[in-house]
């Protein structure tokens, strides 16, 4: 893409960079005309959209190479790498439906199943055996391996059936003897247990929760449309649940998360049948994404008909289980990308997401059972819009807002380029349905700009290394200090048509989370009737100070936040990164120039309303009489004393060197007395320079609590944990989940020391959650 961008004349770049929505037709036409006569552009399209040049297609030779590497690893006992090699082989292997008896893919599934069995991943092994049998039902080795897996799981009745099937399908006498020996072993195992020949059913059930009450979409001054409640809603209530209109996995998660549901991939991940890009957690997700349902051929049914009735019924149940019978209920989102072409693997995620939105709309338009919803709107817009792509824009994106005119010039240019490239790629897949002219290009530009500001990032919680806990092979220490070992990982981007209507606040009253790819929204506070429901688009009060939040929202979502957390002064924004006053008896805060520039006017406004709005916490850091004379960088907001911020920052940097050594020691669990002494000295330096409520001090207190816990000094660990919580309670709302996390840490120490205060801490945790 850089080659294309570099070749565009400077005049055309400026024209696009300075353009408004009204200019899009002209800018799109000009850039399209330039590319039409630019040979490198057509070479790029060939590389992206011509299956002959595809790097993402299937290759039996590449699969065989990965299989051989897997065999070598398996023979050495290197099962982890063998598992990876067999998975890569499955990813590359072409699915040869015409050769069911000697199917290469079925062989790879059994190779991987054998590894999974060696690794004691029995359920995963069972699923791979079933997949092999769905391809090749007469595969004796697959029935045999499935029987051994079922026996290991205690499913002796199924194991017996599997081995009977294996004996029938096995042609060699030596193979039959081996199966009979395994049957005897299973019978002995069964007789030595009280379970008998039974099948263990999965009794887990899920109960669907229905969102409470009705929400209304209203127009809010300076914010556009937003959502309000029609009645009082209590905290913790589910108020919204929604499937995405379109979703795309982020590139860095392609090998770790399912490309459809975005959940973590299991060890027996399932590849796409037509290309080598996606991996799925199950065949259900594979089918939903690509629409490829595995069909059992007629000759398979005739082979099963020859079996004894009870065994035949069992074989049918295995071969035509939930995976193979699952029919897709959705418009398949990967099918138009799944032709071995490269563009969906190369283009940015939001561009591929735009392609999925357009492909879905076209599929819905073509399918009569999906068209009912659109009939009335189509009748109206058909009189005014000749292009179906324009209709797609009007119908699908009318709930979303775009900020094209607020985009940076370079971003406008990139969006123009990607819109043209995307349309050409879709044209290769759908033909004339995707016309390429200035109108369609303009609409795709708008759709991509809408996606940038309206799509939601789907996240998953990921456990970090839980210091204080052992891994699965180790021992628990006397006190397992629960550190902040959970982080949010961005795994995908999605368009939720109703979800995009919830406005942002840096002090939100609702929380968004994801179950699979579904968006769920719950209240975190009491919301009165006609109260606004606002969630955080990322930054919140307490996590970042106001200037950083404003910069992030401006860059990512192209709006100037005017929520109460940003428009009114609050203690957290002042002290989060603040310095302390040089006067030890003064509790005032000292700010640098960047924070002062953001907070100055808000502080003045607050002080002018001092008699009306009392806030003791704020008063501890501000001059209650007249703050205007002290609102200067380096000067205390309370008494006006000056602090040299250059030397103070240098002292903080020096302290952080020793804190970094402490963190490294915690990671290695080799904490020396010298490391602890240096860290305590560094904490003193930080407290001598930073405000008492500075978040960095809270983090260092937490680090020391963790270190002392690992050393078995539980009272010291508890003291530092309480010191951390005391600071965080000033930065966050008392009911914030961050406080609850810290209380869980404190409770873990109190329980280890039989401290009676543990019950009070548990009560607070329950109240916060």
From TrEMBL:
Species annotation: Stylosanthes scabra
Gene3D superfamilies tied to this protein: SET domain, Tetratricopeptide repeat domain
SMART domains the record matches: TPR
Top-rank taxon: Eukaryota
Residues covered by the SET domain: 213-538
Protein name as it appears in the record: SET domain-containing protein
Transmembrane segments: none
